[in-house]
Amino acid sequence: MGEILKQRIKQDTFSSAYQEAYLGLIVAADTLQRNSEEVCERYGITSAQYNVLRILRGVHPDGHPRCDIIDRMIHTAPDVTRLIDRLVKAGLARRGKSEEDGRLSLTFITDKGLKLLTKMQPEIETAERELASRLTKQQAKELASICELLIAEQ
Asked: Going by C-beta distance under 8 Å and a sequence separation of 6 or more, which residues neighbour residue 12?
């Protein structure tokens, strides 16, 4: 077990099954992240920008305040304000005010942002199909369950 991982990180043994699982999870996550970044790069955005656009599409036509975007992000970003600034500058998002509370600034996805996500969708779905080609549905459920254990609040 773990032969591919051993070859990938050039390590012959692991100190425990937990170390092997930990390193395997990190390498697998890195592989998936790099694939995601490559897709985003082809469309001129970062994976963090894709993440924000995906979040904003989920509430479209409404928007989100910055704090809600931060709470929903898959990867935490050090400066979400600048990330949003770049999306606004590219015309993929816009800022506006809440109708209920004029002091609250919201970020909305634009039609251009929606079109970009639609254009990217086939490549995103290809990544999911790749996962499906490697895992059975039951294995995917087990992996999701294990991930749930790992991300649960302590």
From this structure: 6
